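Try this one yourself first.
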């Protein structure tokens, strides 16, 4: 048993020695670094997010009454002018209601004419349509202790009121008839047609989507961590996945005051306005990658972010003392971007620092 134990111990010892030697050699090799000269320049602090193109003016169109769709005049992609008829319902029922209301109005007019004739024969004067049929409050007693006589209500009051009601019913029936027609609310493009001729449509049910594609915007979510650095009017640069290599420019138009939960994160919906380029066929729904320039500083000391080392709550850099030696010094940092940081104190212009390659 002992003769097998000795070789095993020798092999273990050799393995340990090899590991120790490897660690010593590895630690003795200097890290791959390069030298950077501290310089002055401009720096933009940015907030990066994603969003989608959408029309700045869009509408889900619906009827204000329910019935069967009789005619659809547009199709997907049609460009139409404001006021153009898009769809209409079967208005037979509404036409009957209008005819009935018109007949009731004519009857009310005849009744009023007859009452006026009787009034002229009896020497009465027709009341105005706003006259009240109720007697006025009892006036104070006369010195004799008896109230004065109250004039009788005109026989024409009821016909006048009936005509007023009939006129209102007629006007309402005419307005209801117009609800059977759907018009374009502004110049735009038909994005969807969600109903066909013969479909029964309920009140308020969406039957089409309509939008002005000449005026697009970007809707993006800004994380709660970054929203304090985003303000209306800030410059926004963005690219579209559909057009790689092209860059677009806009401005922050609005930031929602209330937060929204999106995939477990708290975000604030923001709108980016921009002028649509004439030579790029952009469309709603395209994905956008946005860079919001939240702050800009000029003529400041800047260094690459990878030169910074965090120890505790402080930042440090390795300043080059000579060709063979560096020293770790604390620095105070300011504005930072994706790859560069402002140095407020701790370094001077033309100082050299060591940074990883």
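Now uncover the answer:
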């Amino acid at each position: 048993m002992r003769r097998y134990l000795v070789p095993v111990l020798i092999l273990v010892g050799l393995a340990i020695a090899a590991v120790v030697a490897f660690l010593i050699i590895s630690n003795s090799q200097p890290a791959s670094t390069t030298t950077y000269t501290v310089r002055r320049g401009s720096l933009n602090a940015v907030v990066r997010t994603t969003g989608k193109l959408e029309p700045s003016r869009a509408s889900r169109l619906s009827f204000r009454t329910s019935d069967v769709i009789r005619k659809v005049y547009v199709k997907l992609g049609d460009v139409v002018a404001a006021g153009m008829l898009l769809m209409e319902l079967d208005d037979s029922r509404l036409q009957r209601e209008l005819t009935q209301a018109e007949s009731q109005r004519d009857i009310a007019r005849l009744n009023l004419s007859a009452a006026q004739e009787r009034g002229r024969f009896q020497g009465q004067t027709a009341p105005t349509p706003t006259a009240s049929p109720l007697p006025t409050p009892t006036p104070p007693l006369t010195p004799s202790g008896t109230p004065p006589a109250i004039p009788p209500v005109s026989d024409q009051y009821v016909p006048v009121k009936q005509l007023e009601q009939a006129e209102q019913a007629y006007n309402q029936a005419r307005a209801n008839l117009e609800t059977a027609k759907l018009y374009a609310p502004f110049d735009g493009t038909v994005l969807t047609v969600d109903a066909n001729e013969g479909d029964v449509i309920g009140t308020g049910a969406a039957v089409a989507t309509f939008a002005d594609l000449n005026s697009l915007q970007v809707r993006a979510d800004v994380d709660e961590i970054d929203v304090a650095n985003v303000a209306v009017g800030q410059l926004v640069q963005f690219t579209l996945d559909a057009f790689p290599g092209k860059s677009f420019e806009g401005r922050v138009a609005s930031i929602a005051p209330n937060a929204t939960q999106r995939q477990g994160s708290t975000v604030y919906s923001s709108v980016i306005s921009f002028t649509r380029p004439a030579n790029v066929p952009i469309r709603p729904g395209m994905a956008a990658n946005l860079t919001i320039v939240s702050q800009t500083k000029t003529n400041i000391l800047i260094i690459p972010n990878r030169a910074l080392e965090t120890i505790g709550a402080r930042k440090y850099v390795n300043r080059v003392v000579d060709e063979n030696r560096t020293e770790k010094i604390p620095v105070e940092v300011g504005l930072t971007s994706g790859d560069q940081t402002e140095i407020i104190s701790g370094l001077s212009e033309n100082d050299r620092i060591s940074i990883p390659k």
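Discussion: Residues 92-122 form the longest helix (31 residues). Residues 22-30 have pLDDT under 50 and may be disordered.
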